[in-house]
Specification:
This protein is mainly α. Helix content is 50%, strand content 6%. It has a two-stranded antiparallel sheet.
């Protein structure tokens, strides 16, 4: 999103994005991942697919 008035931008991530990385997660689990991403993110790294996957794996380890 680009807001010319406030001169700000925002990148949106949704549960579908989390589920594309971890299709085994339901909507509620994917939402928990997104909330953890916001709480834990490092502004020097940002939010990316690898980070989303890492947070998902931390919260919901995949079974072997």
């Amino acid at each position: 999103m680009i807001d010319e008035k406030t001169k700000t931008i925002a990148i949106e991530w949704g549960v579908e994005d989390v589920q594309s990385e971890r299709p085994d997660l339901d909507d509620d689990q994917a939402w928990e991942v997104l909330k953890a991403v916001v709480d834990r993110h490092d502004a020097n790294i940002g939010v990316n697919w690898e980070y989303i996957g890492a947070v998902a794996d931390d919260l919901y380890p995949e079974e072997n």
